[in-house]
Structure formats: C-alpha cells, structure tokens
TrEMBL record:
Name of this chain's protein: DNA transposase THAP9
InterPro entries the record matches: TNP-like_GBD, TNP-like_RNaseH_C
Annotated Transposable element P transposase-like GTP-binding insertion domain residues: 1-62
Chain ranges of the Transposable element P transposase-like RNase H C-terminal domain: 135-169
A Pfam family recorded for this sequence: TNP-like_GBD
Length: 200
C-alpha cells in the first residue's frame, strides 16, 4: 500500500470538502456524512501526531512535550477507543477481527508505543527529553533504507544476502540514502544514517 496516498486521502481537507458538499452545495449524496467526516479527522490527527517533527509547529503537528502531553494522551485514548469500537459494517465483525485489521492494529501499536514514550521520557519527574518528535521513530527511515537497497539492486526487489551486503556497503561508502519517487514514502527530513570516509 502506498502510505503517501492514504495520508492524503485521510485528511482534514477531504473532510472539509465533504462538509462543504453537504452544507454549502446541499448535495443529497452527502447526507449522513458525519461518521465519515469524524473518521477522516481522527485519522488525520493521528497522522499529524505520529509524524510530528518540530516543537515550533502548531496544534497536533507539534512534537510532544510536557506542556502538550496530557492533551495528546487524551486524544490517543479517544482514538484507541474509536478504533476498538470500529466495525466493518453496522452489523459486521469488529475491524480487529476482520481481514482488514492490519492498518488499525498498526495504529493501536503506535498509540501504545506513544503512551510508553510519553510516560517514560516526557511525563516522568525527571524527564529525559524536553520534547520528542515522533517522526524520528517512524517506519519511514527503514522504508527509505530498503528503497535505496532495492534501487542498487536494479530490478531485483528481493535481494539475496550477498546482494544486500553489496548494496548496503555502497550505501555506507556513499553515506547517503536517497529516495526514489516510486517507493512507499516521501522523506520529510534530511536524516543521514552515518558518516563514513571512503577509505573504509
């Protein structure tokens, strides 16, 4: 699944567009849109919190700190309850018991991890961190690494151990990972994995 496309679909701008079609344009197709709009806004806010990168941002895009930790924890509790109550259809299976559970289970794992990070590193009496940008622990960095490894393998998407080692060494010598546009995620920050001289 292309996460970059899903993140654009589950956004507050799509929710605003649906509201506009109902409230301003009075389109009959958008009657009963409330649940969809609520879902879109919740997922959008979850993406914002889990992709927070800076303390200078506003709203839920701001990195978690002691000042906003309670607000974020309250939202995460609400999101967790919402996901746990979510069903495939009105009379269908709970989403976590269905075949479509993967994304929702991933969100629940992220919420649990978020709660643990905040409890241990932000909200403790002697916090380890002043703030924590959650983007730093996202899967994007691993995706970018594997995208670069696959890029070095040419058309081979499943390198064997020798091919992986060779591609990884090339990356270490070049000391930079570049993303290709056709992969699953877009780099939001320029993060170097390490600096190595070419004499190694």
């Amino acid at each position: 699944m292309k996460v970059k496309l899903a993140a654009q679909l589950f956004s507050s701008s799509v929710a605003d567009a649906i509201d506009y079609c109902h409230n301003k344009l009075k389109l009959q197709d958008f009657i009963g849109r409330e649940a969809t709009v609520e879902f879109l806004r919740l997922i959008n806010t979850l993406f914002d919190v889990l992709n927070s990168r800076s303390i200078r941002q506003h709203g839920y895009k701001k990195a978690v700190s002691k000042q906003n930790a309670d607000l974020y924890l309250k939202f995460m509790h609400k999101a967790k309850a919402y996901i746990l109550s979510f069903k495939e259809s009105r009379s269908g299976l709970p989403i976590l018991e269905s075949r479509r559970k993967t994304g929702f289970l991933g969100f629940l794992i992220c919420i649990k991890s978020f709660e643990a990070i905040v409890k241990k590193m932000i909200s403790s009496e002697c916090p380890d961190l002043i703030y924590f940008p959650l983007y730093k622990v996202s899967q994007d960095h691993v995706e970018l690494l594997f995208s670069a490894v696959q890029f070095h393998g040419g058309s081979n998407d499943n390198p064997n151990a020798r091919q992986f080692r060779s591609a990884y060494r090339k990356l270490l010598v070049n000391a930079e990972i570049k993303c290709t546009a056709s992969r699953n995620c877009i780099p939001l920050t320029d993060v170097k994995i390490l600096t190595v001289s070419s004499s190694v």
